[in-house]
Amino acid sequence: MAIKHPTQTTERLEQREQQMRQAEELLGSLPQTTGIAKGLFHGRFIHDWVFPYPTLSRQQSIDTKAAVADLNQFCDQHLDPTAIDRNADIPRHVIDGLADLGLLGMTAPASFGGRGFSQKQYCRLLEVIGARCSSTSIFVNAHHSIGMRGLLLFGTEAQKQKWLPDLVSGKKLAAFALTEPDAGSDASNVQTTATPTGDGATFVLNGQKRYITNGAIADVLTVMARTPVDGTDDTAITAFLVTPDMPGFRVTEPRMEKLGIRGTATAKLAFDQLHVPRENILGPYGKGLKVALTVLDFGRTTFGACCTGAAKTCLRLAIDHARTRRQFGRSLAEFELVQQKLARMAAWIYAMEATTNVTAGLIDRGLEDYMLETAMLKVWSTERLWTIVNDAFQIYGGAAYFTDQPLERMLRDHRINQIGEGANEVLMSFIALTGMRGPGMQMKEVNEAMKHPLRGFGSFAHFAIGAMRLRMQTPDVPLDSEELKPMGRRLGKQVKRLGTTVQSTLVRHREEVLERQLVLERIAWIAMELFATACTLSRLDSELVNGDRSNQPAAQFFIADSRRHVDHCFAALRDNDDDRLLATAQSL
Predict the structure, then answer these.
(1) In a domain, 116, yes or no
(2) Does the active-site annotation cover 421?
(3) Residue (of 385, 382, 355) closest to 370 by Cα position
(4) Is the pLDDT of residue 498 over 80?
(5) Of the residues 373, 421, 521, 529, which is catalytic?
(6) Contacts of residue 540, Cβ cutoff 8 Å, sequence gap at least 6
(7) Which of the residues 76, 78, 170, 300 has the least number of beta carbons within 10 Å of its own beta carbon?
(8) Same domain, 97 and 225
(9) Where are the extended beta strands (E) located within 94-173?
């Protein structure tokens, strides 16, 4: 085993301190409301964030059904995903047609030409697009969910009046420019600078952006740049509204060649002494990171919807092929190993749809802090979709490998999902660290209290009562269906176990937990599965109460299978080969 040099140890400690400061900067900028996801890490079940299962009003249902019918009809007639992939372009008549349907501004208020759809309604429409063409769904998502979302949420009235009507109508397109050569999932590492002129009326942008969807075809871009903090040597990220007609705006590569989602216009951009007026600052000065993270929340819910649509297409294709393809005198659908894949697809799709609807419902209810839930949805649904695509491919066999079948394109298109809008490995660490922050802060207060017993007695007593309650009480999962209550009790026990596990993990690793990514991954998976199970139980409970048992087999299989995965992750926190794994990696 190599011996660490003292200089290496010092550098490692400095890096750890920097990581802690960056994590604190990021997490400290977020609201601290305890919702369903954060509650799980405390061993609590905040049931009113999940129950009752969110539904649309009667008028919303009518409007959504009509919009879905119109969109399906348009797609049948005009959307050719094979041609889009082959030509590496979404035709302008398709974009204009989607705009005419209102899809490019569906959630915007009617005062700006939008239809005022809720996030849940909008997710249903993105599911339709996601089921057909990943390039088109990502184009729409880049324009509506992240491109113009910052303007909707943070724009001044003057900014909205200037740009929203044309963006909502589709006359102009939007893009979101965050990613750089050194800033991808590490959003806080943006290097593009925005330096104010002497009179402060203008900011001069210099830097590069890459992998920007719609970057070369957008008329308005939300650009993240680093600005000085008055009176200090520090800088902070600020969001700017930039248009391509500003001198100094350059498209260095309009359409980067890609493996999949070839129809999207993914660009490289450069800003050379680009002057942006102060009135184009979007949101509070120096709070661009909050703008970016809030915008990405909306994109991640539609990610869940698009994944649901694609997964349903995979299941349909797999079932059709398994029933008609015969081997050894039987259809493929009669073999248990094929049935295993089909059943798992159906179970995950049911849970994916439930989790997307619950998460979108949090936004529609006006709740403030749903960042953890959207991150969980993004990671969980994209990981499950990748396995679904792979399983459908396997069922098809050699036929799937040829370009006359859609699965070849889908395999290429959906690999990006685990990378885009935050790489899943980074988001899993984010999920675990954000979730454990609350319990960690409590334990930090207790440690401080122990240094000053008289002054800190209240903090210590409060923590002790909470710890005792966590170990003595099992969270209640409110279910109306009697037959589901045993599943609810099992979920409550697992939530309780996560709470105690978080405490023991923090005690064991302390500040080094930032670097224990194998541990963080397991804790993140536990939390994601518990969240997905809660959403699935909520949906199934609602259906059973209303006499609908059509989805019961898939839902109950998911709940049971998810519970086994959670148990496996708990066991792996203590019984694992992490040391051997790391030793092998370090020997390479």
Answers:
(1) yes
(2) yes
(3) 355
(4) yes
(5) 421
(6) 481, 484, 551, 552, 555, 556, 559
(7) 76
(8) no
(9) none
